[in-house]
Amino acid sequence: MSKNETEIYIVKGAKRIMDTKYPSFNFVVENLIPSSGLILLAGAPKTGKSWFVLQMLLSICFNKIVFIGHRIIRSCKCLYLSLEDSEARIKGRIKTQGFNPNDDKLLFAFTWRSNEKGVYDIHNFLKKNEDVKVVCIDTKGRFSQGREDESFQSDYTWMSQLKKVSDEMKVAIIIVTHFRKKRADEDPFEVISGTYANMAAADTTIMLKRLRNQNKGMLSVTSRDFQEIEKDIFFDNVSCTWHAPNGSKQKNENLTPERQKIINAIYQIGSECSPQEIADIVGGTSKNISNMLGVMKSYGFVENGTKRGLWTIPEMCSCENDIE
Which of residues 277 and 291 earns the better pLDDT score? Predict the structure, then answer.
């Protein structure tokens, strides 16, 4: 090394590291979406990934208590780069999922520059909009189109740039991608489309699996920062929303579309509620809703609230108890 060259490395001792106070690790969605870092969400085409992402972002933005059984720790502004959809399609999907946004907390963009220029634009946008704490890129294939080099190093370089942005700006950046065809001897996480750089650069990887024409799915999560998760989740074909399992096959068989609408209404309200409040959303009379709630209680779909005449969902109840 010549005398004119400058050292570019930094060395710290173990004691100094242990004596340093670092920001505590936190979540936007508990044990699913960290408050900062690069997150990869992968699944086969037509699995319901975009419905999953939209429902999650709407839940984060509009003060829902839980998402598929995971407590929402932080309600915040989000940016959704919906690069394979149109404004009209998104409007229809929001209505289908039963949300009625009353502000612009969830922001959308339907066109965006790709690759390194796109990363630069995300960084610049976040500098100008510091209240945005979650960014979702749907999909990686559309965001990275036009690249000639598909090597590990090329993939890793631009994804590492995204990770650098997420760390610097303290935001969660979610990239939606697809599976490729799996060989019999492959690890399940190796079917993610692209090179191994996808998982190498990501802090957290979420896999969503669902067979065609079935509502049962499998969610697998692996992360550098928290414990691995593997759980069943269920897709409702009427509301196109994902939900946590209800505990048994019998319960799932007894989850009729009408009962699902009541559950969705309780999620929409976000707290203990009366039959009349539910009826205002799903229609019908307070008495009919009350009768249905009584039957749903026998299957474990709902529970009595803390006050007479109010109802809640078991997982919402447990979350409220945790907060207290």
Answer: 277
Residue type, 261: K
pLDDT (mean) for 257-266: 86
Q: What is the pLDDT of residues 87-127, one digit of tens each?
A: 999 999 999 999 989 899 999 999 999 888 999 999 999 99
CB of 186 closer than 8 Å to CB of 142: no
Classify residue 184 as exposed, middle or buried by CB count within 10 Å of its CB (0-12, 13-18, 19+). Answer: exposed
Q: Which residues make Cβ contacts (< 8 Å) with residue 223, sequence separation at least 6?
A: 34, 203, 204, 205
* Per-residue tokens: 46: 């037509």
User: Which domains are seen in the chain, by residue range?
Assistant: 22-243 (3.40.50.300), 249-323 (1.10.10.10)
pTM of the model: 0.68
Three-state secondary structure call for residue 141: helix
DSSP per residue over 144-212, as a string?
TTT-S--SHHHHHHHHHHHHHHHHHHT-EEEEEEEB-PPPTTS-GGGGBSS-THHHHH-SEEEEEEE-T
Tokens of 117: 């220029």
- Whether the CA torsion 33, 36, 40, 41 is positive or negative: it is positive
Reported residue count of the chain is 324
Would you list the DSSP string of 26-59? -EEETTTEESSEEEEEEE-TTSSHHHHHHHHHHH
N- to C-terminal Cα distance for the chain?
60
**Rg, the chain, Cα only:** 22
Helix (H) or strand (E) holding 60: helix 49-61
User: Which tokens hold the place of 271?
Assistant: 């707290």
